[in-house]
Hints:
By secondary structure, this protein is α+β, with helices and mostly antiparallel strands. 14% of the residues lie in helices and 31% in strands.
Amino acid sequence: MTYSIESYSVQPIGYIESCFSHKFGIPRQPLLCPSATGKLSLLEPFNQRDCVEGLEQVSHIWLTFIFHEHTDKDWKPKVRPPRLGGNKKLGVFATRSSFRPNNIGLSVVKLEKIELLDRQVVLYLSGIDLLDKTPIIDIKPYVPYADSISGACNTIAPVSPSIIPVNFSNTAEDVLKNKVSKQYGSSSLKQLIVEVLQQDPRPAYHAEKSKEGREYNMYLHDVNITWFYKNEMGNNISIFVSNIA
């Protein structure tokens, strides 16, 4: 049997406004950071009540999106998943790598609320793993009895990643309580920082080679977070947030 090769085009139905303004620090999977919030504003002609009628009955949704910063990059049959330390290659279709033949991603996120205004439909989301301005090409409701499969397994990533303790300097705590709290709320921003950093956002090859005290920077919203890793007793590591600006 032969098949003709066809070309398909898709159009964004909306764009994400995300707390992740840079790629570094974005969780490697959705829902790992419940405090990671964003909103999806639908474009015409999808910005109408009829398109989302009934969606308010759903707690979680699937988002199909474009890895828009990778569309100009080549894909390869094998990639190095971060979960395997960046040292082992797997077939691209055995991973969730963003370097894919069609640059399409899939995330399940929590739907917090739907805002319906004049000629505007906005979905408020949490647990996102999406870069700011990510184009969304489809929304589907999460169906628990079908989407949560009892007995499913993935021996490549059998359990969630281990959590690293996160501590804050007095300087960082002061910024959270004063300057930043006026715009974001000190407790919610601090929780977001903890949830993101405790997943260890370093590239896998950095985890093996990075020296104690080496500083890293990450942006959440427009807030610049500086931190470094500390070796603890028993060869364990912790993260120390030294400054927030």
